[in-house]
Amino acid sequence: MALLEVRDVTLRFGGIVALDGVSFDVEEGQISGLIGPNGAGKTTAFNVITRLYKPDSGEVLLDGSSILKAPAHKIVGKGVARTFQNIQLFRTMSVLENVLVGAHGRGRRVGPKEAYEVLDVVGLRERALFPAAALPYGIQKRVELARALVAKPRLLLLDEPAGGLNHEEVYELGEFIRKIRDDFELTVLLVEHHMNLVMRISDDVNVLSFGRKIANGPPSEVQADPAVIEAYLGADDEHDDDEPSPNGTSQVSDTVSDTEPEDEA
Ligand SMILES: Nc1ncnc2c1ncn2[C@@H]1O[C@H](COP(=O)(O)OP(=O)(O)OP(=O)(O)O)[C@@H](O)[C@H]1O
Ligand SMILES: [Mg+2]
Predict the structure, then answer these.
(1) Of 46, 121, 54, 115, nearest to 84 (Cα)?
(2) pTM of the complete model beyond 0.90
(3) Which residue of 13, 198, 209 sits with most ligand 1 atoms within 8 Å of its CB, as the best mutation to test the pocket?
(4) Rg (CA), the chain
(5) Following CA atoms 178, 45, 76, 63 in sequence, which dihedral angle do they give, to the nearest 10 degrees?
(6) Distance (Å) from CA 78 to ligand 2 centroid
(7) Over the stretch 23-67, which tens digit does the pLDDT of each residue have?
(8) Domains in the chain, start-ordered, CATH in brackets?
(9) Ligand 2 mean position, distance from CA 110 (Å)
(10) Tens of pLDDT along 74-108?
(11) Rounded to the nearest 10 degrees, what angle do helices 95-104 and 112-121 cross at?
């Protein structure tokens, strides 16, 4: 049985169908990529899984049990933690305080010692007492990751963790995600526009386009899927400044890695 099962989830915002009968599974211990052009519904799916949004219909099961009746603040206690596409730290609190807050929902008492251990994992021990807002963007993203990890989740949802990172940092992030998956025995659901990163580290990939799931499979299969290439090329048409790529497989890669999110919401 999969750790996470998303079953036929539909969510509308007025006339927009952000998720349209979406189903996918995330197997325990895997890194599962969730990709798709801007506005495809990826963040909305995360917001449903973490109970920030209530779907109009469908079901979300964790270990076979519905989580849709649990309030959002109980989700961490069920073993689901996340980072946000737009960083959501307590700006005036220190790095350490932000991490301690992350442990709160798990119903465990976490002291500074445990928080510092997680700060070591992300390499931020020496910044523990800095106000979060004073740190560069890339470092703030690591604070968010530490805050999610200290809750000792089973399922970690990462919403564009590579956003704003340079080429080398994106590579290192990939290695880091694999390492924490192993060290913390995590299952990871990864939303990313950096196609090289997703394809390199994912065991399985689901693709959304306009709220619908259009493909699922191992990275090599999904990358070569005509429906996926078409979805990204369609999205690419909106960007007049983007160069078309010469062949199918790399088109997905080039298009996506060169496409910054339009909407930082
Ligand atoms: N709170 C909201 N109210 C109204 N519409 C919303 C809301 N959140 C998302 N949407 C709409 O739902 C659709 C899916 O948005 P979502 O943010 O999930 O896309 P995404 O795949 O995460 O895109 P991106 O790659 O740009 O982050 C979009 O059309 C978006 O405008
Ligand atoms: Mg998003």
Answers:
(1) 46
(2) no
(3) 13
(4) 18
(5) -80
(6) 23
(7) 999 999 999 999 999 999 999 999 999 999 999 999 999 999 999
(8) 1-79+154-265 (3.40.50.300), 84-152 (no CATH)
(9) 31
(10) 898 899 999 999 888 998 999 999 999 876 656 66
(11) 110
